[in-house]
Amino acid sequence: MPMKTSLIEAVNEQIRNEFQSAYLYLSMSAWFTHKNLPGFAHWMKIQWEEETGHALKLFQFVHDRGGIVTLMPLEAPAIEYDSPTALFEEVLNHEQQVTAEINDLHDLAVKERDLPLQIILQWYITEQVEEEAQVEEILGKLKYLGADGPSLYLLDRNLATRTVPGRG
What we know:
Helices cover 76% and strands 0% of the residues. By secondary structure, it is mostly helical. It has one domain (5-159): Ferritin, core subunit, four-helix bundle (Ferritin, Up-down Bundle). Helix 1 (5-34) runs antiparallel to helix 3 (84-111) and helix 3 (84-111) runs antiparallel to helix 4 (115-145). The longest helix has 31 residues, at 115-145.
């Protein structure tokens, strides 16, 4: 069943949002690399890879449904942050915005009675719960333990162990 034009446009916008997220996380990885925090940089690169995968999943979905993907320009992400804590506060705000965007897209899919889109978006909704929980955990540790000295070093080492889901 082909998708309605309004839904194709909305999914194209979400593809842009997912690529924008990836771009943001790659920029954050660069900042952490510059600050000599390779574990944080690694965590952000994994996040970049996940967000790219999210965009490509929707990309393929549109094509599978007979639609045309129209890629849109991305905005330049920030390149400087006050601290790891401030950066993760931005990450949490960003993930909450992504959650709202996906929820809005799901609402549109329900309104337009597009069951295949509703089903794929359930995966994204579940993923966003996990995304926000991960970020809140790291942010909580940064706030509780502090973002300097030994605590930051240990958290950096811990974040370096993150693996890409599905690849062990």
